[in-house]
């Protein structure tokens, strides 16, 4: 039931561990951020992505920059 609720939500739902690493993201989150596979985001640091957005990057620019940093 939980996975169904998360994956049918129209919003981005993301979970991360205490270190800020993304451990789960909803299907809609993947779609809105332009990803097709969870593995592309799992393990990325959500806190650093948030800081990049606050610094003026768009959410997509932050995700792309983070992907280049940690890939």
- Averaged pLDDT: 76
Sheet with the most strands? 2 strands, antiparallel
Residue stretches low in confidence (pLDDT < 50, at least 5 long) are none
Q: Using the CA coordinates, give the radius of gyration.
A: 12 Å
Q: What is the spatial order of strands in the main beta sheet?
A: 1-2
Helix content: 40-55%
Summary, kept brief:
The chain has helices spanning 2-8, 27-33, 46-54, 59-70; strands at 14-16, 22-25. It has 71 residues and is mainly alpha-helical.
Overview of the structural elements:
- Strands 1-2 form a two-stranded antiparallel ribbon.
- A hairpin with a 5-residue loop joins β1 and β2.
- The mean pLDDT is 76.
- The chain is mainly alpha-helical and 71 residues long.
- α3 packs across α4.
- It is built from four helices and two strands, in the order αββααα.
- The chain is globular and about 35 Å long.
